[in-house]
Amino acid sequence: MIQPFLELSYISKIFPTPKGPFVALKDVALKIRKGEFIALLGHSGCGKSTLLNIVAGLSKASAGGVILEGKETDEPGPDRMVVFQNYALLPWLTAYENVHLAVRSTMPGAPESERRSVAERYLALVGLAAKADKRPGEISGGQKQRVAIARALATRPKVLLLDEPFGALDALTREEMQEEVLKIWEADRTTVLMVTHEIDEAILMADRIVMMTNGPAATIGEVFEVPFARPRSRAEILEDPAYYTLRNRILEFLYDRFGEPVLAD
Ligand SMILES: Nc1ncnc2c1ncn2[C@@H]1O[C@H](COP(=O)(O)OP(=O)(O)OP(=O)(O)O)[C@@H](O)[C@H]1O
Q: Which residues belong to any copy of the ABC transporter domain (predicted)?
């Protein structure tokens, strides 16, 4: 069998709590191809972020593990970059400096001129060349998220981990950002694992949509292939009857089979 690029190998996660051990994830298993875009969809609290953090190396699996290019990985590393919902930029650095700092740490031996041009190129790619000298406090939420995405991509990770990257944005900015990230992704085909709540976001962006069951002991309940050719356009997808079939199957999974009310955090 061909080795998968990234394998989630029977990952379980148990949190100790005052009431005893809480099994958040149980035997999560998935093989991901190089260049694949995977969306992880499920109800609030089912364990999506926990899983992403394990893949990032920020949290340890209680059993099972993450295998990247045949090697077990359980520490954070520059081969896996995470973009969080709330940007996590350094507020005292400009947009350019935030990106440049990440480039410097992943290209320590490269000449400064090369590092500078990489940082500038990725800021330009997300449409922010004109805001390079602004600090996070001086730009909008969408612009901050663009910087965070530029910072992650500029380090050329093997795997990009997106944890609800557009969750804090208004609907219009969110749609714009989805399209921009797709455009960049279509050019360099980084392997992506993206946590989302949004069905349409998953359908527009992903090759496969991985459905998580509700916790405790959440696991993968079903995997849907997204049948649309790339490059994709929202308008074309909406005209395709396959969109409605897929959307209904996802809704049926979420609300008929695993239809617990979504709890507020
Ligand atoms: N450190 C922890 N200790 C105990 N329980 C935890 C801890 N972290 C997460 N959990 C529990 O594990 C489960 C999964 O949480 P997680 O944040 O991964 O869910 P999620 O699917 O990402 O949720 P959301 O979509 O709301 O962000 C939840 O029941 C949560 O309460």
A: 6-239
